[in-house]
Amino acid sequence: MPATIRPATTEDIPAMVEPLLADARERHAEDALLWDMAEDAASQVEKAVAFALTAEAQPFRQFWQVAENGGRIVGVIHSMLLPVPPIYAGADGKPGLILPDSFAVPDAPEGTVEALVEAAQAVLREAGARIFLSSFVTGPDWRAAFVAEGYEPLTLYLSRSDLGDAGSLSDVRPATEADVPGIVARSAENRSVLFGIDPFWAIHPEADARFDAWMRRSLTLPDRDMLVMGAPEDLEGYVIAQPASRLHFPPAHKITGTGVIDDFYHPDFADSNTLANEAVGSKALLRAAESAFAERGTGAAFVVCPAGWRSKIELLEAAGYETAMIWSIKR
Hints:
Blueprint: E1 4-7, H1 13-30, H2 41-54, E2 62-69, E3 72-81, E4 96-98, E5 103-104, H3 112-126, E6 132-136, H4 140-148, E7 152-160, E8 172-174, H5 180-197, H6 207-218, E9 225-229, E10 237-243, E11 258-265, H7 280-295, E12 300-306, H8 310-318, E13 322-330
InterPro entries: Acyl_CoA_acyltransferase
């Protein structure tokens, strides 16, 4: 008998905790450093689900649904309306995102995963989503369900858990306020490459001004390292090594000790297919970011990279990074 899919309620929370912990353990088995388990993982899961189901003021709209069979919770799925970063146009509105903390128990009725994905898409569509994204880490049934629904890789999260200390590099230095115009100019090149890879990254008309404001704000934040190459008037490239956010890590996992590189650009990979200049400059920036993480005691990091940016992927894989998570898109 197929499972019944319905919205989760607060009464379901105790029964949802164990499947979500089992889901987290699967990720932990893939990479124990990147997907480190919180000491109080069960409590963190319970708090996060309760907040999503009851809090009136939330940073984004999210949805929890469960699969029920014979009075037993046999699956859960978590989705949200994803805010569009301010440097992108977002003409299609907020995409609907199926998050990685979604799980079906091994003895769930056949078709439970597929039914959960369909139900999540339905609730996201009703909430106004016109584009759907999925986040995949583990589980062949989930991968197959997303492929069957027409999802195609959009963004890769490539990770490395042996950062070590690359040492200081004389040609890479901390950014200053004088570097912001150069960072913005290189960011515009980065955005142009992104848009060329996929129109999903359509550029907002005020992207430069917004990114400029964010870079100046970032310089005041003590939790990150903003690194550049070259003189301010002729900046070669930049990289920002920052702490992980909860968006990419379900609540059962720690995020302290994990870093993220999202803003990272050098003309070495301006051609999305072919690396230039033996990637000398981009390698130096990446090594400097890894060194900055190591100095902060960060043991694992991932780099956000479009799935179609083959030259950047080549650089990262040569440096020891492997794909840890895939965000896919269904238009």
